[in-house]
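Appendix B, example 12.
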Amino acid sequence: MSTPSKPLAGIKVLDISRVLAGPWCGQMLADMGADVIKVERPVAGDDTRHWGPPWLEGTAESAYYLCANRGKRSVTIDMAKPEGQALIRQLVAQSDVLLENFKVGGLKKYGLDYASLKELNPKLVYCSITGFGQESPYAHRAGYDFMIQAMGGIMSLTGKPDGEPGGGPVKSGVAFTDIFTGLYAANAVLAALYQRRDTGTGCHIDMALMDVQVGVLANQALNYLTSGNVPQRLGNAHPNIVPYQAFATADGHIIVAVGNDEQFRRFCEVLSLGHLAVDERFATNRARVNHRESLVPVLEAALAQRNIDEWLAAFEAVGVPCGPINTLDRVFDDPHVQARGLKQTLPHTQAGQVDLVANPIRINGQSLSASTAPPSLGEHTEHVLNDIGITPAQQQALRKAGII
């Protein structure tokens, strides 16, 4: 629901997307204060409602669904039926934004494509999220995060090198491409709304998972485009900075992120290896990258002599960036995470309450997270339809016909 103190108060978003990339975009807009109406299939709802275990205790809500849908209102409408399509169009007439992630051309047969809906609402910002975009040799293909991580190059960069134990390509532990696409889509929607203030008209945003995956290859893409050399997997090491990786200690692993030559000097002093900092092979980052095979084994041997806590204290004392590799229980017990309120507990209509991860954006010291939990399936159907003038008698008839 819109909150007057939030940036997008008064903006209405119709979210007919499913799974993750589209819903993540919708959740971001809800956090910013937009009234996001999530349209779902009657009975089944969003696919992710069934992607469990785990489930929120006392409910049929999966953890996966809960991660991407806070702050929204849920209405169930069967858009495959003409009556359902009519309801969608009535909602569109009052909306500022529509989010969808159907296959290219999939909504045209329902009269819910951009060309049809812009005639109804010329101010509509219509955001399409697909695997490969509206115009591509692959436009007809479905897009899934795992597949896009492979095709878009990130898996060629993630994991240990071939030939090492456990070597081979590895996907990210979360749906990396979907999340980034949701964030890019939310940025695009904000830009389109800003532009609409001047033009008075909406637009069609064309987001492709593949485009986003290529777009976030960042320095690795430029490593290739600049040099012509194809980057290879380096495990936890960095292609452009040394030492910037995980090291084994006496009781586990520690991350060391030496970002400049002065930090390297202090790092070496803590290790009692000060001579390395003046060795021409290692004195500069350029030299260390070129001689990593000689340097890293020496560092590994030294770091194996003491435990994690001892190294953390020693490095922090001299300003060398470092940190432990936390499991998620330790993440949510971390003093920083607790102080910043990154675990958010909200009331839930069925479970009593639900723990969620808060939006990390803070404005004027306040978290941007929505204050309502992910909705139960169809929780707000009656209220949403009342808003567009559908009478109780009409709603009863629509329920009987399975339209809502």
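The chain has a mean pLDDT of 95. The longest helix spans residues 176-199.
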